[in-house]
Structures are given as structure tokens and as C-alpha cells.
Amino acid sequence: TSRSVLLHTGVKCMSQVEPNHGSLTLSSIGFQTETEAENRSKSNKVKSFGSPSENLKSKGKPFDTNEKKKKAFRVVEKQQMEFAPFAAKSFSELGLPHVLIERLEKEGFTVPTEVQSAAVPSILNNRDVIIQSYTGSGKTLAYLLPILSVVGPLRVKGDDGDENGKKLGIEAVIVAPSRELGMQIVREFEKVLGMDNKRVVQQLVGGANRTRQEDALKKNKPAIVVGTPGRIAELSASGKLRTHGCRYLVLDEVDELLSFNFREDMHRILEHVGRRSSADPSSNSAKSERQLIMVSATVPFSVVRAARSWGCDPLLVQAKKIVPLETFSPSEPVTLSRSSPSSAMPSQAAVESLPPALKHYFCVTRLQHKVDVLRRCIHALDAKFVIAFMNHTKQLKDVVFKLEARGMKAVELHGDLGKLARSTTLKKFKNGEVRVLVTNELSARGLDVAECDLVVNLDLPTDSIHYAHRAGRTGRLGRNGTVLTICEEPEVFVVKKLQKQLGIPIASCDFSEGKLLVTEEEKTLSTSTS
Ligand SMILES: Nc1ncnc2c1ncn2[C@@H]1O[C@H](COP(=O)(O)OP(=O)(O)OP(=O)(O)O)[C@@H](O)[C@H]1O
């Protein structure tokens, strides 16, 4: 009873102080830089609520729910008190362990991105979070770094019971909707951990040999596993993967993971990972034992709802603001809308999901000329790494054939290819052996090829969320990128709708004499939309 009263009062308290979804600052969630802490102790006006590194020290103990609830109050209190500059200039400002920062520097990561500056302290402060930020903004490191601060060889030492080499079991489970994305996340972990510590992370993706994965789990005793929902649920059900004592559950591309396809597996994962077997699964205390981190560029309301029911006082963490989820209602946008308030629900999930530097065009042509337009666009922009999206797997081969016939190296990538073929194809594309990757929705999420300079929709995406994820394969981490949608005349209204829903200009263009020409009419439209 006291728990529910506390929660209830907490919510009430937030809604009083937070009528307009006011953003929180880094410092308002309990994080303070050294200078801030010093100034504060001198003036002694504001009480310190504990830096992330202080919180790390208490990480080894079972999580105290009341403590967490108290923090929710502190969030509200502090929010009124101060505002701090948001983006940290270096990783050392984020409260990460020294040895981890050294590893980051060795790998060339020196400055955190905005979303990393916001998310790392929030997670270090034990908060359940939804991380929402545009594609290619570094969301993977945003959750990976705070996890490695607590789990594995780069963590803050002395905060748990494994100093004598005793293994603690699985401490973090990261779930991704595709093998490619899972493997990419593992590589990001390995980059930071270094070759010597590779075994801390184990890949559990579908399509790979299950027995070998089981043997590796037994032999290497990894602290972190990364995998697809099916394989994780399967291993968990067979008792080969024990995750009840897990501290972190990360759902990367969460809106996709919550889709119908993954329903049963995700239910098992949410019910079992980080839940002690003795606990009553329906009680709130069971919910609070693990820290839940949900991640995506697009956050429909279904994700907010899931975070509320599976998490504990979750925060929505974005590049420039942190907002308690309690402040959202189903009718309100999850992100700050660049589009008109009257636009439909999907737009609310997709706004601000795209890198601001992207250029968007569409070109009208007949169906039989689409591949020719694609080729002319590649030449006009002198694009080197091109991803062309289609809706149906069967048609990919034909496009590859047509491009190759005109001397342009291309390759197809889809889910029906075997694991080996998929990874060789991707490797070929990444190392520049082929110029065009012709693919379907499989590659729309998460695929990180930094050099990709052009994305082409040979078929229209089904909605603005799919457009956003496809488009986000280019223009990663502040780079330039172009997105071209090739459509037939009767489909133009769909492009206009996407433009409106995403709040971005999509200009009509054509190709002539090896150049991209933007039509006058659309130039005006772009200016008025922007
Ligand atoms: N602070 C940083 N400094 C330099 N490079 C970084 C930094 N953070 C991330 N990166 C790199 O930026 C690229 C994009 O990061 P990441 O894939 O995490 O983006 P994302 O936001 O998850 O994108 P998506 O929504 O498409 O999955 C990766 O290659 C990553 O290694």
C-alpha cells in the first residue's frame, strides 16, 4: 500500500510542477560536473543528489525501489532549481570510469554526441529510459557506455562481489530485431572493450548454430548477451540462458520489437530477464529489479505505454531534453513536432527522427524507367555508397541484373539469404567492392555504413516511420546525405503526405545532362515547408 501511495503522490507531484512537459537538464536528474559540484558546495544553497559515479558505487546492491521513487521527487525538485548546458564536451564529464574513457580515446571517440550526453548520466542514475534521437546520432554508445561502467572489466572496481574472479552471470541482455543489427551492436561493444575482453559479450542471433552458442555460454560465461528475440527466448526457455539476476534489459529498435511478429518472444523476455524467480511477477518490486532501456529513432505511443507498464518511472531522453513519461497522454506527440499539430499520429512518432542535414527529393517516372533514374541519380551525385530499397524480395535480383548490365556493381541483400551470404554481401558493400546495395526492409533499421551517401526508394515505404528508418542509413553522425524517392505519377500524393507528416521538404527533381535539377515549383514548396 505504501508503495502505491508513494507512486501516486509522485505522479501528482510531477504533474503539478510539469504542466507543459518542461524539459529536465542533466543536472536536474542528479548529474553534476566537477565545477558545478564545487560551486554548489561553496554556496551550499542546493543540496547535492549524488553524481553518476556515486550511484555506480551502490550498483552492486539489490535495487531499492523506494530509493528510486525518492529520486523521482528529486528530479522534480531540482528541475526548478537550475539549468545546465546540455552537451558535454568530453566523455570525462559524464561520470564514466577512467579506464573506459581511455579505451574510448584509443578508438577515436573523444566527444560525446548530444544524446549520449543526455542518456549516459540518466542511465548511471539508475533510471529506466526511452532513448529517442534521430538516426545515426550514436544511440548505441548512449546505452553501451553506462552498462560498461557497471558490467565487465572496464567498470568502476569495488562496486560488486566479483573481485575474486567469481562470475556474476549474465548482467545485461540487449535485444535487437535483426541478426545484422545484433551483430553490429556486438562489434560496437568489442570496439570499446578491446580484443582482450571480447568474450565478455556473446552474440545470440537466430540463424547461427544454436549448440555452438550454448557451448560458448557455458565456456566463456559472458556478462553481456546481444541477440534476436527468438533465439534469446528459445535459450531462456530451455534453461541454457539464465538471466533472472540480470541488471539491464535493452530493447534496441523498440518499436519494431513490440510489433506483432515478436509478441510471444518479447513477452517471455520481459517476464524473465532481470526478474528473480521468487518474486511475484505482478508486483512492482519485481519490475524494479532490472533497469529497462528502450531505444529508437521513432517512438510511437505504444512504446510509451510499454515503458510505463514494464518500467519504473521511465524518462524520455532526447538529445536536448529529458522528460518524465508520466507527462504524456495518448493524444500528445512524443517528440517536439516540426510538423503541424493537426497531422496524423504516425508523424508524431517519426518527427525529429531524421538527421537535419539530409536532402530529400522525389522524381516521377514510369515503372519501367525506375532503374534508369536510379543510375542517372548515382552519376549526377557521384554517389559512392548507395542503398536502394524495394518492398518485395523477388524484384531485387532484377534490379541488380539491370545495374550490372550497365556496368554498375550491385548486390542484393534480404532475409532469405543464408547467414554467411548476408554477412559477405554486407562486407562487400562496406569495403566498397560494390556500389549499390539493393535491399528490402531488412536493412532499413540500424544498418551503419558511415560512408553511405545516397538512399533511394525504388518503391514507396509503407509510412513515415519506414521512410525515416530507410532515409537514416545516410547522413550518419552529421555527414551529408541525399534521399531520393522514385515514384509514378499517381503516387505523388503519398510523397506529399510523407513530407507533411515528417515536417521536411521533399523537392521534386529530374536528371538531365548528368545533373540533378530541382523544379521551381518544388523549390517554393521546400522553402515554405522549412
Ligand atoms: N561520440 C562519438 N564519436 C564518434 N563516433 C561515434 C560517437 N558515437 C557514435 N559514433 C559512431 O556513429 C555511428 C552511428 O552510431 P549508432 O549506430 O549508434 O547510431 P544510432 O543513433 O543508433 O542510429 P540508428 O537509429 O540508425 O540505429 C557508429 O558508427 C558509431 O560508432
Automatic annotation (TrEMBL):
<keyword id="KW-0347">Helicase</keyword>
<feature type="domain" description="DEAD-box RNA helicase Q">
    <location>
        <begin position="89"/>
        <end position="117"/>
    </location>
</feature>
<feature type="short sequence motif" description="Q motif">
    <location>
        <begin position="89"/>
        <end position="117"/>
    </location>
</feature>
<dbReference type="InterPro" id="IPR011545">
    <property type="entry name" value="DEAD/DEAH_box_helicase_dom"/>
</dbReference>
<dbReference type="Pfam" id="PF00270">
    <property type="entry name" value="DEAD"/>
</dbReference>
<dbReference type="InterPro" id="IPR044742">
    <property type="entry name" value="DEAD/DEAH_RhlB"/>
</dbReference>
<keyword id="KW-0378">Hydrolase</keyword>
<dbReference type="InterPro" id="IPR014014">
    <property type="entry name" value="RNA_helicase_DEAD_Q_motif"/>
</dbReference>
<keyword id="KW-0067">ATP-binding</keyword>
<feature type="domain" description="Helicase C-terminal">
    <location>
        <begin position="373"/>
        <end position="517"/>
    </location>
</feature>
<feature type="domain" description="Helicase ATP-binding">
    <location>
        <begin position="120"/>
        <end position="317"/>
    </location>
</feature>
<keyword id="KW-0547">Nucleotide-binding</keyword>
<dbReference type="GO" id="GO:0003724">
    <property type="term" value="F:RNA helicase activity"/>
</dbReference>
<feature type="region of interest" description="Disordered">
    <location>
        <begin position="35"/>
        <end position="64"/>
    </location>
</feature>
<dbReference type="GO" id="GO:0003723">
    <property type="term" value="F:RNA binding"/>
</dbReference>
<dbReference type="InterPro" id="IPR001650">
    <property type="entry name" value="Helicase_C-like"/>
</dbReference>
<dbReference type="InterPro" id="IPR014001">
    <property type="entry name" value="Helicase_ATP-bd"/>
</dbReference>
<keyword id="KW-0732">Signal</keyword>
<dbReference type="InterPro" id="IPR027417">
    <property type="entry name" value="P-loop_NTPase"/>
</dbReference>
<dbReference type="Pfam" id="PF00271">
    <property type="entry name" value="Helicase_C"/>
</dbReference>
<dbReference type="GO" id="GO:0005524">
    <property type="term" value="F:ATP binding"/>
</dbReference>
<dbReference type="GO" id="GO:0016787">
    <property type="term" value="F:hydrolase activity"/>
</dbReference>
<dbReference type="InterPro" id="IPR050547">
    <property type="entry name" value="DEAD_box_RNA_helicases"/>
</dbReference>
<protein>
    <recommendedName>
        <fullName>RNA helicase</fullName>
        <ecNumber>3.6.4.13</ecNumber>
    </recommendedName>
</protein>
